[in-house]
């Protein structure tokens, strides 16, 4: 496989850091971005110590100025964009602060559009680009108390389909990977939040809320998401665009 320059948002921890580490091990140059510069510096240091190639840049996906500054600071053109930055807030809509609701949409939907829009001209000029959105099982189904997250993740699918059509005249693709729960700090926080909101023990959140709908009944691994990303940026996937890749352990086939 040709080694690519891959920019990953929200790469300071969780899925972003996990994918970054796996793809760096495959020989790609990784541009780690996150609102928390200290966090991505630490991930970049780990990749470099393991013999990989990486650089870290602070990035606020809700800011045009931050996006412009980050892209100006990196060492080489971006071949692949992985839109991963995200956050969660669990509350009934009546108790959901509208500013928080708007912020989740700004990060996980508007931020995706902002960064994709900034990188597309360069991809067009070079005649190659791959965009991989990290969606969620909540791009496909809903859960109570997650109205902003579900709305943003559903929106990613429509956005991807439109951009697939707009880039069909060149070697650019865009797809959305939709995993069920991955054991990350974000999910750990959700476990506590859902236990409080639903009035049940945390172990019941894991067994009865998160894993019960999955016939396979297991958390998704970083290696799975990195492997799917690696395939989507490879030559055999050049005509896969605008699609949703479900990694749900059988959840949505029932």
UniProtKB/TrEMBL annotation:
Membrane-crossing residue ranges in chain numbering: none
Keyword field: Oxidoreductase
SUPFAM superfamilies: NAD(P)-binding Rossmann-fold domains
Source species, domain of life: Bacteria
Classification via InterPro entries: 3-OHbutyrate_DH, NAD(P)-bd_dom_sf, Sc_DH/Rdtase_CS, SDR, SDR_fam
Gene Ontology molecular functions: 3-hydroxybutyrate dehydrogenase activity
One Pfam short name: adh_short
Keyword Cytoplasm appears in the UniProt entry: no
Keyword Oxidoreductase attached: yes
Enzyme Commission number(s) from the entry: 1.1.1.30
Assigned protein family: Belongs to the short-chain dehydrogenases/reductases (SDR) family.
Protein name from the UniProt record: 3-hydroxybutyrate dehydrogenase
């Amino acid at each position: 496989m040709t080694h690519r320059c891959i920019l990953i948002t929200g790469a300071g921890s969780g899925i972003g850091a996990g994918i970054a580490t796996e793809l760096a091990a495959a020989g790609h140059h990784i541009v780690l971005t996150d609102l928390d510069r200290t966090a991505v510096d630490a991930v970049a240091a780990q990749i470099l110590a393991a013999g990989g190639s990486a650089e870290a840049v602070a990035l606020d996906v809700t800011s045009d100025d931050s996006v412009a500054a980050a892209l100006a600071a990196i060492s080489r053109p971006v071949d692949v964009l992985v839109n991963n930055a995200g956050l969660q807030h669990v509350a009934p809509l009546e108790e959901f602060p509208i500013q928080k609701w708007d912020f989740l949409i700004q990060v996980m939907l508007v931020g995706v559009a902002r960064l994709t829009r900034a990188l597309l001209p360069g991809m067009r000029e070079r005649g190659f680009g791959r965009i991989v959105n990290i969606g969620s099982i909540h791009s496909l189904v809903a859960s109570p108390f997650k109205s902003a997250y579900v709305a943003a993740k559903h929106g990613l699918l429509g956005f991807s389909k439109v951009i697939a059509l707009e880039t069909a005249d060149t070697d650019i693709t865009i797809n959305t990977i939709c995993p069920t729960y991955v054991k990350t700090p974000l999910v750990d926080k959700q476990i506590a939040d859902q236990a409080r909101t639903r009035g049940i023990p945390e172990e019941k959140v894991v067994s009865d809320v998160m894993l019960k709908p999955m016939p396979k009944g297991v958390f998704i691994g970083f290696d799975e998401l990195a492997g799917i990303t690696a395939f989507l940026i490879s030559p055999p996937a050049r005509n896969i665009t605008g699609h949703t890749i479900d990694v749900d352990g059988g959840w949505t086939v029932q």
